[in-house]
Specification:
The chain has about 250 residues and is of the alpha+beta class. Helices cover about 15% and strands about 30% of the residues. It contains 4 helices and 10 strands, in the order H-H-E-E-E-H-E-E-E-H-E-E-E-E. It has helices spanning about 55-65, 80-85, 125-135, 180-190, and strands at about 90-100, 105-110, 120-125, 140-145, 160-165, 170-175, 195-200, 215-225, 230-235, 245-250. A 9-stranded mixed β-barrel has the order 1-2-3-6-5-4-10-9-8.
Length: about 250
């Protein structure tokens, strides 16, 4: 019988096994990607306004609505243009229409491609539908809202909610919103583009043509009729075919 007080040798094998600790070899999570730096500048007359919280909630609900086009009478606008399809007067702005092919179209207006947007609205019409209509002929979009009291100083382009008529049909509601980071990223990518149309890559990790972002950028002649009416006429690069797209802003 062995001595119970015998101390085992340090080299002796024991039944207890040890597992290496993984805490010292854990890989730290990657740092968050840096925020995109924008080089767009403020337009000359831009004043910063904080969005109203109620409109944010309404906008999130509005985006979940399906796109419908119930028939409706289209308000009258002149069908001819002065000087044989040439537009005179007003100022020139840059307009960009963009969106996923089956998603809603966003309209962004800038003083020029180097400026931050002075107006961003989401239109209740699918991008592929608008592309098809523009390819087939002249398109008219009317954004209509109610007149305000005479003492109200709200400018026409600062109206928060509009009713949209698309080629004679009531298409639903349009909401003015502040430019979001995704909007600014697109404007930054298109900064070198003055006029043109094309496709930008879709969201990271999302495949399929429907997630590609189509855009069309052009110069628009901005004609102010009164404090309650303004019109944007898309200028043709050739300058001799008249506007293919006209956007009317009107209070009635």
């Amino acid at each position: 019988m062995g001595d119970p007080n015998t101390i085992p040798s340090p080299n002796a094998e024991t039944s207890t096994s040890t597992t290496p600790s993984t805490s010292s070899t854990a890989v730290p999570p990657p740092p968050p990607p840096p925020r995109l730096q924008f080089s767009l500048v403020q337009p000359s007359h831009k004043k910063k306004h904080k969005p109203i919280k109620v409109l944010r909630v309404f906008r999130s609900v509005f985006r979940s609505f399906p796109i419908v086009t119930p028939a409706c009478r289209f308000p009258y606008f002149p069908s001819s243009f002065p000087d044989g399809n040439k537009i005179s007067g007003g100022s020139r702005v840059t307009g960009t229409l963009f969106g996923c092919r089956r998603g809603r179209v966003t309209l962004s207006l800038q003083e020029d491609p180097k400026c931050l947007p002075m107006l961003v609205v989401e239109l209740p019409v699918a991008t592929n539908v608008l592309q098809k209509e523009i390819g087939g002929g002249m398109v008219r979009i009317a954004l209509e809202c109610e007149k305000r009291a005479e003492k109200d100083k709200t400018k026409l382009m600062e109206e928060p909610v509009w009713t949209m008529y698309f080629n004679g049909k009531n298409s639903g509601y349009v909401l003015k919103r502040e430019a979001e980071e995704e909007d600014l990223s697109i404007m930054e990518l298109l900064r070198p583009v003055s006029m043109g149309a094309g496709v930008l890559p879709g969201k990271t990790g999302v495949e399929g043509h429907d997630e590609e972002l189509a855009y069309m950028r052009a110069h628009f002649q901005r004609v102010v009729g009164s404090k309650d009416s303004e019109t944007l006429y898309m200028l043709s690069p050739n300058g001799d075919n008249g506007p293919e797209l006209s956007i009317f802003f009107v209070r009635i």
